[in-house]
Amino acid sequence: MRHWVLITGCSTGIGRALVPLCREAGWSVVATARNPDALAELPPGEDLRILPLDVTDAASIAAAAAACADLPLKALVNNAGYAQVGPLELLHPEELRAQFETNVIGLHMVTNAFLPLLRQQPGARILQVASMLGRLSIPLAGPYNASKHAVVALAESLQLEVGRQVAVVLVEPGAVRTAFRDTLARAWGDLPERARGTRYEAVIAHYLHGRKRQAERYGMTAEACARKLLQALNASRPPRRMTVGWDAFWVGKLKALLPAAWWEAVMRRFYGLG
Ligand SMILES: NC(=O)c1ccc[n+]([C@@H]2O[C@H](COP(=O)([O-])OP(=O)(O)OC[C@H]3O[C@@H](n4cnc5c(N)ncnc54)[C@H](OP(=O)(O)O)[C@@H]3O)[C@@H](O)[C@H]2O)c1
């Protein structure tokens, strides 16, 4: 019997790269996206079901869960997410709320909607895609840092609560070359205008340009990241935590080793915060 995996946020990036990898590895895939037309290019087959799923919309989640009720669902990959960035001083509360609605509450609602189905399959697992920024915080990305710290906390609690029946794997990637940074620029909204004339004006320009360039130079490909997720899907004993990428590994170590004042000095210098 083929096992099924449901993946959120398959329109681009890591989620999209994971779909063909899973199919090649013998999984059947429920590929989901807010706009399922974005998945029209995926080769059809009995091993693929395409469903609309907006993780902020309870009705959409319930409909997706109902549409999977007949499947032997063995894995869920909570991948959908975006980064709301910006200096906290300039941030509107609704921007912070929206960030949590998608990255945290959405992930939580999807998890709970599919847990009953997952419980029926021995060896079932949930992959919660957090970030290296779920363990350390960088400036100008406060909302995103906070949301991913919350994902880490939820995953660790969930592992303790249900881990004997359904394994919970925390995935913590470093920089990955995806549409993520374009989406990030869109999530700025009118922040550059809000920043005009403040100490953040130059900092933001430096940040937007620099972040994209760094990720393009050093980030791993979406496929390389997806391969790591596939390892966790296939593992007979899934890991509790999976750090993906040399930056996620080493930056975490560096933060743990450096005195706090040194770490802050490095961060301020790196982000042009003087
Ligand atoms: N790229 C990185 O450097 C990096 C590093 C660490 C962690 N991550 C995490 O990896 C995950 C995937 O990101 P990515 O790099 O692959 O970025 P991406 O290419 O921008 O993909 C994000 C996906 O999430 C979907 N999404 C956003 N809001 C959604 C919603 N309300 N409902 C359903 N889907 C939604 C997007 O769909 P639409 O097309 O509809 O917007 C898109 O398919 C995210 O959780 C991100 O935080 C990324």
Question: What would you say this structure looks like, in words?
Answer:
With 274 residues, the chain is an alpha/beta fold. It has one domain: Rossmann fold (3-Layer(aba) Sandwich), CATH 3.40.50. Helix content is 50%, strand content 15%. The protein contains ten helices and nine strands. It has helices at residues 13-24, 58-67, 93-119, 142-162, 180-187, 191-195, 200-218, 222-234, 246-257, 260-270, and strands at 4-7, 28-33, 48-52, 73-78, 125-129, 167-173, 176-177, 220-221, 241-244. The strands form two sheets. It has a seven-stranded parallel beta sheet, with helices on both faces. Strands 7-8 form a two-stranded parallel ribbon. Strand 5 (125-129), helix 4 (142-162) and strand 6 (167-173) form a beta-alpha-beta unit. The longest helix is centred in the middle third of the chain and has 27 residues, at 93-119. The radius of gyration is 19 Å and the shape is globular. It binds NADP nicotinamide-adenine-dinucleotide phosphate (NAP).
